Amino acid sequence: MTITRLDSVAQANRAVVEKAFAVLEAWDHRGESLGASELARRTGLPKSTSHRLLGILEAAGVVERLSGSYRLGDRLRGISGMVAAGFPDLREVGLPFMQDLYELTHETVHLGALDGADVHCVEKIYGHRRSPLASRVGGVLPAHTTALGKALLAFSSLNVQRSVLTYLDEPLVLSAELRRTRRAGVAFDLGETHPDVNCVAAPVLNREGRAIAAISVSGPAERFTPAMVTDRVRRAAHAASMALASGRPDSVSA
């Protein structure tokens, strides 16, 4: 094979990869489902090309085919997990304060980071009793209903907030709640994500006041009242923020 031929093959392969990335970037958030026609419209690619690329991405587990549409697949969630694993400081700094909250409550404690319209579970300490809400490290939860997601969104940029609010049936309700969360420094989920689970969360902030993570405590609604631990959660998240900024996980007590 001549050098010219090799160059042509390399260029063709690069073009396929670029088009595949264009398809993946068409999704505004992880939970969104798109048909081939809408993907073609958003990417500007011919519908036949979109179909072909979707077949390749589906075979690789990067997208999932639904009834007449597609969504981002589980393999991307695995990649998200690897990305989170690439920031060990977040887990290392957050875990001592999560353990403090667990010892105080014996309820389930989460550390999460925003991943599009979802919350990526970075770390979890299981409570004494099994929670009705299924969650796992590396898994995702909806940002717009969970206390973790609301705490993260409230202290994110307006562009990030709009990217989630745009796809809600009642965006003004969440928008008002995000304003209250920002004032109070904590967010609540009173049976929204699961009718039998209550939760309270607070953001872990960087030096600019933007949320890079959030810590939550959740428990069965029949016996767990978030107001009882609100101050503790707020203080733990604040202490984690200070520890992360200083680079010393044990530098501040919750």
Q: Describe it for me?
A:
Pfam families: HTH_IclR, IclR_C. One of its GO terms (biological process) is negative regulation of DNA-templated transcription. GO terms for molecular function: DNA binding; DNA-binding transcription factor activity. Keywords: DNA-binding, Transcription, Transcription regulation. The chain has helices at 3-24, 36-43, 47-59, 74-85, 88-105, 147-154, 158-165, 171-184, 230-246; strands at residues 63-65, 70-72, 108-115, 118-125, 140-142, 187-190, 197-205, 211-220. The chain is an alpha+beta fold. The chain has 2 domains: 3-72, Winged helix-like DNA-binding domain superfamily/Winged helix DNA-binding domain (Arc Repressor Mutant, subunit A); 87-246, Beta-Lactamase (2-Layer Sandwich). Helix 1 crosses helix 3 (47-59) and helix 2 (36-43) crosses helix 3 (47-59).
